[in-house]
Amino acid sequence: MDKLPVEYEQYLEGKDEFHIDTIMPVFRESMAERKFGVHIRGLGGHSEQAFVDEAVPFGKVKITVV
């Protein structure tokens, strides 16, 4: 797999293994298409939802706390 964009790597820093395993499929989907970035929303930890978002540029992470 190609190297992750800097913002993806920065987002993953300090996260536990479970959290990384949960988010990585979405990062991989974004990497495969190379069109859109990732939107992560929720309260953090196990209450987060991540998805590839057409409104976010590739390689960027948008975080929304709800």
Characterize the structure shown.
The model has no long low-confidence stretch (mean pLDDT 93). The chain has a 3-stranded mixed β-sheet, with helices on one face. It is built from 2 helices and 3 strands, in the order ααβββ. Helices cover 36% and strands 33% of the residues. With 66 residues, it is α+β, with helices and mostly antiparallel strands.
Main traits of this protein?
single chain; 66 residues; alpha+beta; three-stranded mixed sheet; 33% strand; globular
Q: Can I get a quick summary?
A:
With 66 residues, the chain is an alpha+beta fold. It has helices at residues 6-12, 17-33, and strands at residues 36-42, 48-57, 61-65.
Layout of secondary structure:
Blueprint: H1 6-12, H2 17-33, E1 36-42, E2 48-57, E3 61-65
Parallel strand pairs: 1-3
Antiparallel strand pairs: 1-2
Question: What structural category arises from helix and sheet content?
Answer: alpha+beta
Contiguous runs where pLDDT drops below 50 for at least 5 residues: none
Give the fraction of residues assigned to helices.
Answer: 25-40%
SSE order: HHEEE
What is the end-to-end distance?
32 Å
The tally of beta strands, per DSSP, is 3
Describe the strand arrangement of the main beta sheet, using strand numbers: 2-1-3
Give the number of domains.
Answer: 1
